[in-house]
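Attaching the record inline, Q. Sequence:
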Amino acid sequence: MHRREFLTTAAAAALVPGMMAPRAWGKPAEPECCDTLYATPADAMRAPREELIYVTAVYTGTRDDRPDYLATIDVRPDSPTRGRVIHRLPMPTPGDELHHFGWNTCSSCFGQKGKHRQYLIVPGLASSRIHVVDVSDPFQPRMHKVIDGNEVRRKTDLSAPHTVHCTPAGQVMISMLGDAQGHAPGGFLLLDEEFHIAGRWERHTGGMHFNYDFWYQPRHGVMLSSEWAAPRTVAAGFKLEDVQAGRYGHRLHFWDWERRVIQQTIDLGETGMIPLEVRFFHNPESTHGFVGAALSSTMWHYYQNDGRWHAEKVIEVQPVEHRDWPFPVPGLITDLLISLDDRWLYFSNWLHGDVRQYDISDPARPRLAGQAWIGGVLGRGQPIAGRKLPGGPQMLQLSRDGKRLYVTNSLYSVWDNQFYPAIKQQGSYLLQIDCDTDNGGLKPNPDVLVDFGREPDGPARAHEMRFPGGDCTSDIWV
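Structure, as predicted:
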């Protein structure tokens, strides 16, 4: 089935049962998070507009005596608290470095009895602790359970949790960057439905060099993983000599989803250094997807043909000479996502300071359609709401209807302090960019600019974002 046909074929003419009709603003009578699983990406695009955003807020590397927290942001258009943090859930212990997080259940479990998007799985990259947060009341998340990092290391010989996805079988799968001592290659951790450690997903790590992000596409029996570096390497800060010594990744691993072993590896070489976020198209029939190589500042289109996987470089962000740098400044592509209709690709250049929008109707030939400059080393970012924003655009999250792109600026505390030390004193931001999905185009919206520099306990770093009703970087269809 062609992706356009899939997107216009809904399982039902109405919205998914359990989803709320439009209503007056205020605390919802029924939690927005419950039962918001979708039969198709088209159903998700028709779902009600996001009202809240959950954001990981980090004090690690800023004020070590404070625990990181999960911030709840109000983004309801007519709300008097629009664009503000309305709830903070502190972690029990300092030093987590909250990073990426995800749901206990996503749309891969659509139609399964008793499956609800109720719990956020919030790991600590530095501590290896895994926090399970109950969002039955989406306005006031509460801690449900904490899995100690020592238990993770002892039972699985893994550490440094990164990407969280639920699986169609109801388990939670987490990519782990290292072993118990912080050495590569790491592996994949499984939690059962009661959030107990169920063991490791992979049968063995043969062929792995490093680990980072992953995405699965069950109709094609595949899971794709990418490479960053060992936890010990990245925790020491970025060093060119580590790149030269082969301590950073440049490979894509295509796994047999059922057998849980690597079936094919593609080496992207010197022009594909540090491939980070991987995104398949949302149409589960598709074998197309994109991965951004951060250090090389290149975007790669991967696809399957004649039973083999291929990857081709389709976008290259050229480095720029800068008087304060000993070498040309790379764009440093750090995050990307694909709209739910598989029409638009967005990615951020953390060092250059721009967010880009590409039309990927033909994924082999992306066309630049929009660009917004926000901070960055090059100094091209314009003030927004009267503020010159620190750092550069980093994490991205797109509304389900594709109209609003949310941006934060923290990458990783150690690297923040190295490249953008002002974030430590000034804190992060969360910004909304309005997206033209007819003709292309990006425009920062000054009405939604959350200043994490003014938090009650001091400036904090804002990283990944999730909506109570699901989003385009956590929902997978089977």
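The longest helix spans residues 149-156. The chain is about 10% helix and 35% strand.

More tomorrow.
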